[in-house]
Each structure stands twice: as structure tokens, then as C-alpha cells.
Design goal:
single chain; 333 residues; Helicase, Ruva Protein, domain 3; two-stranded antiparallel sheet; 14 helices; 11 strands; globular
Length: 333
Amino acid sequence: MTIPPDVQERLEKFTETYAAITREVGRVIVGHGEILEGVLVCLLTGGHVILEGVPGIGKTLLVRTLAQVLDLEFRRIQFTPDLMPADITGTIVLVETPDGRRDWEFRPGPLFGNLILADEINRATPKTQSALLEAMQERSVTVARTTHRLAEPFFVLATQNPLEMEGTYPLPEAQLDRFALKLLMTLPNRAELSEIVDRTTGADVPAAWRVADSKALLQMRDLVREVPVASHVRDYASDLVLATHPQADGAPPTVAKFVRYGASPRGAQAMVLGGKVLALRDGRYNVAFEDVRRMAPAVLRHRLILNFEGEAEGVNPDAVIRDVLAHVTEPEA
């Protein structure tokens, strides 16, 4: 396929900017390359991320550093059981105007930013969770019958602690489906931990420099949408999603045995969009099967609903996804 010169120029700029973002974030964050890749995929496709990991491994620092590199407004919201929807969306207050009159004025909440860290989202009540998820879906909030648009780009990274589950309100599957990816943040290895200690206990603390802004990010997002996808690659993403449903023809045995309900169409959309980002990152203007396969675990792991047998045996959704990837063949062009 011949790429028009103007598109080739934009592709090269995309690849260069992506590499610069990764490089600058790497000046502060040690390791977690796959996590940064997933976060950037969502930023560049308009999706949102749910990040699961124990405290103290750099979730907040990652998002704050990314905001610095992209010159975006960072907001952190600590979700607690007493957090109310108005605490995050904003509220109407009575103020005195310069001419001495009183009038109602909207005071925006912390959702009115670009990069939102929803820390321990499962500690808030379902009512507050729903207020956040509505903003994620509609890119707006409604207060007192007035709709207020959120600035673009608008990106939510919601965290969950897998250890402390008492006093939490886990997100229902239908709400989890609103997140494009679920990323698992693991502990650093010995070499990475030693590097973290070196960077954070010395006199000079590393800092990241700005390499792009919201305008550049939105231009990169536009290019992602323009990347063509061959019909057989698109069908492959669809086949992977269908294979996660136990009632579907050709579902692997592990799915038929342990899964109650599979991924929604949003799963196929996220795999294709994520594959476009990976293709552009590698300097390609076409999506390959490998791009879709690489996106599959993060896209599907929170969209599989295990049945009683699967939960009783402690089946890992990632193991089911590996079986799906091994079972589904690549369609011919």
C-alpha cells in the first residue's frame, strides 16, 4: 500500500512523539513498560484504564509524570465511602455579584481536568462510581439540569487495590466494560527496585520535560482513527471476542467450562483501536494480527465473567485468554 506523502509525514511525527513521551516518562518511572504502553494506547484512542496493583508501586507518579510530559492538567481524586457525586462533578453555590445581588454559580469539581487519577475507585459507593462513569462515557457532567462539557483530552485512570477488599464496592461487570483496558501493575524486580532506590534517595531527583501538548495529542488521536484495517484482521478481532462466549460455536473447552459470559463488542473495538496505535508506534500504516493479539489480554481480562466452577477453582482470566488466542486461527485474506 502506497502511503500519501502528507500521511507519511504525520506517521513519522507520531512515531517520533510517541518515542519521546516514552523516553521522558522513563526518566522518572523505572520499568512498567507494558503499563505505560497500555496507558498511552488509551490516551491515543480516547479510552480509559483500570489499573490494579498494590500501593506504593508508582501509579500516581506515572500519571503525574505523563501529565507533565504532555502539559496536561492532572487531578487526583481519593475515593472513599463518604465521597458524594457532587464532590467530583462540582456543585452550585450562592455567590454575591459585584453589583450586590446574589446569584447561583457553578463551581467545577476535580473531574474538570485532563488526566484524572481515580484512586481506589472501588471504595466509593455505586452512586459516586456512576457519576464518574457517566463523565467517562459522555465527556460531560450534568448539575442542576445544566450540562457542562469536559475538556479534551479527558482520560481516567482508576486504580484498585487487590489486597484490601473489605469495605469496598467492586465495579459491576457492565461498568467495568466502560474501561478499554485493565492493566496489572506488578512489583519491580531486584534490579528495578535498586534503580528506584538510587533515583529517589539521592540529592538529584530526576524530572521529565514536556515534549508535547494537548493539541499534538489530539492530532495523534485523529491519525489513529485514520489507520486502515484489513477485513481479515478485523474479522480476527471479532472471532476472538466471539470465542470468549461459551455458547458460541468453536469456543475453546476452557471457555465452555469456566466462563458464564464473554466480552462485549467494546472488546473488539478496543483491540482494533489499540492495534492501530501499536502499528503507528512501529512506523506502520496497517494493523497486523500481532497487534490485535498483543492487545487481547488487557482488553479481555476484565470482560470475562466466570461461572461458579471457574470462581471455585480460582481460574485466572488470563489463562482463559491464552487458550482463546491459541484456539482461534487467523482468517485468510
